[in-house]
Amino acid sequence: METKEARLAAIPKALSFDPASDRFFILDQTRLPTEEVVVEQTDVEQVYDSIYQLKVRGAPAIGIAGAYGLLISLKKHRDLDRDAFEALVHKNADYLNSSRPTAVNLSWALRRMVGVADAFPPEESTEALYAALRTEAMAIHESDIETCRLIGEHGAKLIEEGNGVMTLCNAGALATGGIGTALAPMYVAWADGKRFRAYSNETRPLLQGARITSWELHRFGIDVTLIADSVASYLMKLGRVDLIIVGADRVAANGDTANKIGTSSLAINARHYGVPFYIACPYSTIDPHTPTGEEIVVEERGADEVIYVKGQQIAPADIQVFNPAFDVTDHDLIAGFITEKGIIRPPYNFSA
Fold first, then answer.
1. Domains, the chain, ranges and CATH?
2. Catalytic-labelled residue, pool 242, 249, 287, 327
């Protein structure tokens, strides 16, 4: 019989790194679910574009991609003197950090990488510093794998036999370095033998819930039902939803949470129908230096993402479009945060 660990290990990976050759690969998520295409990332501009174009996405995965992206951007420059090399570390980190401003894990991971360079003994060689940066990038990745496992174990305790569990967007394995954040409790609960029904909101405009979450869960064998975003409230009214778990891109010190657009509406409906609403995220997603959600910068994206679906025009080409990638859910709508440290419940105070 296949073990729980073997089942969880078979979940598809968003990214991979070969330390023997320092080669970095991502699964191009814009081509799911019809194609599984793994693409090597060879320079900093390509990694920037992969993050911005959502080929790699999800706060933890973006952070890991930023760390590996910074590393491979330095691979061909190990012949520089220390001052020039460190200047390039800072330059490329700033460049990568500008690709997705809302996800705090990206800046967090890049700060870790830059911190290694800044603290590295000046008498050591550029090659030694590069090796230290490789070690740090791999540590960020390995830490996320363990973090996802712990989130899954803690969150699985919330899922009961026969429950209906809803999620939005994709906070699964393809959003992280491990088995996911919001989907991790579902994976662990299912691997433990609990049987429940998952509901995946399609997540307009880019359909991450339809293209990625439903693909992930279905591939694992979980009983998943795909719904249009507008169906969520009705499902709650019918009493079919017992629990909602979503991910997060940034959590303010008071618990206000930025996540994929539509999250706040889901939380408001959950409060109305008495459905517990949880955020699953690494503790690193919590930003103690951002007091409330008011200070979170919400990324706005181009009109074409709304006007076109898979290249097919569905609205007038010159229509005005407002396309925020995220919204901010008030902390008082959140029943708890599922983190690697356990489930954190109100009142929230994540101040530094």
1. 4-149 (1.20.120.420), 153-344 (3.40.50.10470)
2. 249
